[in-house]
Structure formats: C-alpha cells, structure tokens
Amino acid sequence: MNDLDLPPRAPLPVEVRDRIRTTVVAGMAESPRPSRNRWYVPLAAAAGVVALAVAAVVVVTPTGDDRAATPPPSATPSDIDKFVDGCVAHANRAYPAGEQPWTAAAFAAEGGVGALTIRNQDQSVVCEGVPGPNGALKVGPLIRMGQIEPSDVPDLWLIPFSNTGMQPPVYPLILGGVVSGQASGMTLTLSDGSSVEADVTDETAMALVRWNRHSTTELWEKGSSNEVMKELIVSVRVVDADGVVLYEGPPA
C-alpha cells in the first residue's frame, strides 16, 4: 500500500517519469496566464509494456475571458510521481478492470490542477486533482457533454469529456470544420486508405492521435492543423443522431 492507502502498481519507465517531471514542474512554476493558454505532455509507452492509446488532452479554464488564473502552487518531482501513481491506483480501485489494469495515457495541467487520462483497452477515465502533499484526487468516467466549442487555435474544435466535478474540465482536440453542437458521429478516412468511425467523444480524439505521425507539440507550433492533418486525414464525415450529414469534406 502507498501513502494514499491505494494498491501499488508497476512503476512507469524512468524516461516517462523524467518527461512528466520536467514538463509539469516547469509549467506549474510559470506565472499566471490568460485563461486559454495551455501546456501538456503526452506519455510514451515503453517496450514490453502494454501499448497505450495516447490521448492529446489540454486543460482549459472555463471562464472564457482574459482574467488571469489563480497562481499555481509549486509541485516537486516527488509530488508528480505520487499524483500519477495515485491516480492509476485509484482508477484500479474505483473501476476494477480485471486482467488489464488501468494505465496512465496522458497528463495535462493548468493553474495548479492536474488531469491524467487513464486507459484500459477501450475504456477511459480521467483523474483530476492538485499534485502536492495535500492534493485530493477525483476519478470519474469520460462523459460526453453534448456540445462543441470553437477554440482559439485555427481549424481545431474542442469538445469537453470530463465532468467529474473538478475545475477546469479536460478537453481533447477535435477536428475542425463546419460542425455544430448536434454532431453525434464522425468517420475519418485516412491517408493509408483505412477509416475510423467514432462517436463525437474522447474516442474521436483518440483515433486522431493514434494515427498521427507527428507530435502534438509540432502541431501546436505550426499554428494550424492544416499542415499536419492533411498529411493524415483525407476526408471527414460528421452526422447528427439521426444520421443527417452535418459536414463532409476535407479536414479544414
């Protein structure tokens, strides 16, 4: 048992922990920024470990204005280790998954609040909390909120998938285009000739990232999804709950 009174789990690879520590500690030490600034770090699977379906997640403060967020508390490498281990152990305890235990998939943080996406085969949960000695953890299933919001990044949309009671909520990247809040299903035709069908949920974002040959950092640094997405996705078809086509065409 660990200090969170949760079952132990196999440690993450050293290189993964180092990447989390460096990015998270640096991000939490930054000065407060406008509400829609973000930073995040996808985790990488190590050889011999069950492959991870890595979700590209960002954390967005829900105010929608330019007021600065509350200054984040400091977080040490040990705090981050405990947060990751505690989240995965808590997920294993709250949502028993049998032979395939829950595994950390992606981490994001903003304003001192951390969010860890946890995967088990085709299931997902999210753990939210504040990394630190007294930081509480809250784990809940990824919930479709039924709405799509325009982002401040060209050609990308955001759809919330976390409603666990913690603030701010967690958002995955969703393909842009002429899409309304009535979107229910999406079919992506990929450059290799295959296709991915998914509800407009976190699974859509998973499909995008699973086939992406580029890092999320490169995508954001380009300032537009066009250069990256067009190399990956040939066409997109979005329908509502009744099967009515809302958008069909190129990804941007």
Short descriptors:
252 residues; 5-stranded antiparallel beta sheet; alpha+beta; 2 domains; 4-stranded antiparallel beta sheet
Q: What does this molecule look like?
A:
The structure is a single chain. With about 250 residues, this protein is of the alpha+beta class. The protein has 2 domains: about 15-140, no CATH class; about 175-250, no CATH class. It is built from 5 helices and 13 strands. The strands form 3 sheets. It has a 5-stranded antiparallel β-sheet with strand order 1-3-4-5-6, covered by helices on one side. The protein has a 4-stranded antiparallel β-sheet with strand order 2-9-8-7, with helices on one face. A 4-stranded antiparallel β-sheet has the order 11-10-12-13. α1 packs across α2 (about 75-95). Residues about 25-75, about 140-180 and about 200-230 have low confidence and may be disordered.
